[in-house]
Specification:
Rossmann fold; 7-stranded mixed sheet; 8 helices; globular; binds 3,4-dihydroxybenzoic acid; binds magnesium ion
Amino acid sequence: MPDNQTFEAVDQFIDGLFASEDAALRRLRQRAAAEGLPHIEVSAGQGKLLYLLAKLIGARRILEIGTLGGYSGIWLGRALPPEGELVTLELSEAYAAFARASFNEAGLGGQTVILTGPALQNLPSLIGPFDLVFLDANKDDYPAYFAEAARLLRPGGLLLADNVVRKGAVLDPPADDPMANGAAQFLAALAAHPEFESIVLQQVGIKGHDGLALARRR
Ligand code: DHB
Ligand code: MG
């Protein structure tokens, strides 16, 4: 069984071939390190996967819950046609300001709307349809985000959710791990939802052991 060092080396090899970062993404990383942002953004390869999935479904309106510094938002935004729009929700005013600069530097300023504050306060006022919804904020609130995503996605739309495996903690979530409990409850609700056909992609690599849920709204 390969160890995590091997998984990381292969991840870096894959990203080197298929997910190289341009100047805007590299600069975002430098600013994030300098300003002390949590280093929990998607990897370059995960960003490329988001980009490809958005392009494959021809996404024109994308909703992201959990902007952080705008790293995944740039990958998603780059999949949009010129008239497309990314709406992204961020709790922290400081991260939102950082992400605003990231989107501007990436040339996506005019296609990006950042809504600041608790996502569960901002979501009810959003009007669909969205072609793609990406969950990557508070894992505890994934079940509630899912209810809003189901309302906002168009038929045939794509729901993606990061961090649904949590190093296997989702199998039997400890009482003191709200993230794993949120992920487990979300997966149970997703599996039981008659309007979604879904799967989870288990992932290993530079972000450790985790997983991405993919679901198509019927
Ligand atoms: C962590 C990773 C993530 O991708 C995220 O969105 C939040 C937290 C983590 O590993 O702690
Ligand atoms: Mg994540």
